[in-house]
Amino acid sequence: MTPSLDRVVVSAASGPYPVVIGSGAIEMLGAEMSAAKLGSRRVLISSHRVWELHGQRFRKAGADRTPILIEDGERYKNLNTVARVLDALVKVNADRSTVVIAIGGGVIGDVVGFAGATYLRGVPVVHVPTTLLAQVDSAIGGKTGVNHPLGKNLIGAFHAPSLVAADPAVLETLPRREFRAGLYEVIKYGVISEPALLDRMRDTLPAIFARDGNAVAPLVSASCRIKAAVVSADERESGLRRILNFGHTVGHALEAVTKYKRFRHGEAIGYGMLAALAIGVARGVTPKSLGEEVDALITQLGPLPSVADISSKEVLAAIKRDKKVVNGTLHFIAASDRGKTIELTDVTEKEIKTALKKLGLSA
Ligand SMILES: NC(=O)c1ccc[n+]([C@@H]2O[C@H](COP(=O)([O-])OP(=O)(O)OC[C@H]3O[C@@H](n4cnc5c(N)ncnc54)[C@H](O)[C@@H]3O)[C@@H](O)[C@H]2O)c1
Ligand SMILES: [Zn+2]
User: How many other C-beta atoms lie within 10 A of the C-beta of residue 67?
Assistant: First the structure.
């Protein structure tokens, strides 16, 4: 039986590309690539772990060789891994029409996307995201890149994919913590754009935790739709795309001061959203009831790593170093209602400090 897939189209400067979502999307990959008129020469790139778990599902993807397997995990998101991918592409004589298919989490997507952006100045890339975070966020939007020893994502390029296939069935094997981390980004979409997502999560949480496809697939679909709409309107983050940074000002700073070791990205965003809501409520721009609603949902997802030993001062310093400070003023996304945001440009250090204290950070 042909599975029924949801599809959205993202418009990018380089042209529109489809995102197909649903259980069975992987088996449909070959057909989808043909429909998108992508070349018949295909190279699969994945990680050892992901390929071991799900590789057999790609038999029909029409690849002509065994996959190129690399390491994943944040510490491999660097130029060495990119070089390994480029070496492998040279070795198999990949040409300009060869389609590179990235199968894995956000790290694989960012590394392979960057290699795809630079090999022969750019070859078509197909993303098959296999973590919840990658499905709802990183596979869509064309940001690619790797870390430098001195900072995260310092090296990169915009390279929009030619096709994204998100199959929620692969999420069944995801470690519990990785899965939960992705759910915080889904909450983000609920807050900034679609409050019904918050209701759905609250109402179906046991089924979501049980990875019931009927409960998880709609979250992936809705999130992809929102991310696709936002990046279609603003690919280069000059305006609307900034709403995706809700919770990320404090979240990124928490990740940086703990050297990217303590939190999964989504967990830091969980705290970041709580901080953004606290600041909004204190200012009177965010309804108190919304703050309480999201706080309760985040609590229901389970305990977040402790922040008691993290110094607010260091977090503030990290915020100031972040890209979101434009000409000395902090651009901060706050929630103005369920599904609505407002950009604040005059948030003071004192307001942030008060919010961090509320989260339980030390002085
Ligand atoms: N490009 C963007 O727009 C964008 C947006 C958000 C995040 N990111 C990047 O994404 C990265 C994080 O991605 P991530 O959270 O997916 O982490 P990840 O890629 O490190 O994957 C997490 C772990 O899950 C494993 N895994 C992947 N799929 C699996 C599956 N189906 N079953 C079992 N295990 C599986 C991986 O082997 C890995 O150990 C960060 O580097 C971040 O900077 C990029
Ligand atoms: Zn994020």
Answer: 20
